[in-house]
């Protein structure tokens, strides 16, 4: 068996795999993009009292307002996830999830925490990708292939979403600033 035979076999396997999984991949991609919201909503359900007490203690807003905040957060996240996964009202669900990101950034005072800010921007990037996917596009000569002459809002949303998603991985980096600084003189 030569190298060309192995390459042909690998390509045949890849083609067969894509044909079989093609209908499932968009659903898996959407699940991956909203998984943080889904996990956070479930987390809020199981740690209701801790979340409520944290908001009450941080903002000194009282039991009722803190409970309302946690309920709104939980309902907004889980409803948005269900709508995105079912492909119903995806644009409204994405805007609602954008609102949840903004609400959490303010309520949990994470605007000045760089790691959480980058995480939230990455979540926004995932939502931009979902919005771009939900937008209908006009007919082109080749389906799915972008044209060089035209630039649509969908293409800008995809670019922005991809760039912002990189920020999620940037939070995983642990750079040592001492590498760039000069050693101290003793």
From TrEMBL:
Membrane topology (UniProt): Multi-pass membrane protein
Family matches, as Pfam families: SURF4
Subcellular location: Endoplasmic reticulum membrane; Endoplasmic reticulum-Golgi intermediate compartment membrane; Golgi apparatus membrane
Stored InterPro entries: Surf1/Surf4, Surf4
The keyword Transmembrane is assigned to this record: yes
Superkingdom: Eukaryota
Source organism per UniProt: Cebus imitator (Panamanian white-faced capuchin)
Similarity comment: Belongs to the SURF4 family.
Entry GO terms, CC: endoplasmic reticulum membrane; endoplasmic reticulum-Golgi intermediate compartment membrane; Golgi membrane
Protein name in the entry: Surfeit locus protein 4
Keyword annotations from UniProtKB, A to Z: Endoplasmic reticulum, Golgi apparatus, Membrane, Protein transport, Transmembrane, Transmembrane helix, Transport
Transmembrane domains' residue ranges: 63-85, 92-110, 159-180
GO biological process, one term: Golgi organization
């Amino acid at each position: 068996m030569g190298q060309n035979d192995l390459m042909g076999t690998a390509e045949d396997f890849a083609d067969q795999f894509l044909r079989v999984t093609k209908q499932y991949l968009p659903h898996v991609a959407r699940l991956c993009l909203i998984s943080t919201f889904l996990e956070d909503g479930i987390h809020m359900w199981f740690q209701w009292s801790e979340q409520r007490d944290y908001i009450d203690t941080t903002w000194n807003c009282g039991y009722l307002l803190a409970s309302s905040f946690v309920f709104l957060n939980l309902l907004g996240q889980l409803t948005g996830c269900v709508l995105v996964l079912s492909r119903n009202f995806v644009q409204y669900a994405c805007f609602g999830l954008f609102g949840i990101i903004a609400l959490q950034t303010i309520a949990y005072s994470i605007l000045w925490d760089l790691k959480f800010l980058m995480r939230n921007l990455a979540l926004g990037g995932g939502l931009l990708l979902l919005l771009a996917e939900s937008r209908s596009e006009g007919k082109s000569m080749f389906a799915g292939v972008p044209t060089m002459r035209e630039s649509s809002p969908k293409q800008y949303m995809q670019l922005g979403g991809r760039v912002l998603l990189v920020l999620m991985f940037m939070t995983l980096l642990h750079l040592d600033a001492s590498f760039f600084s000069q050693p101290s003189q003793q």
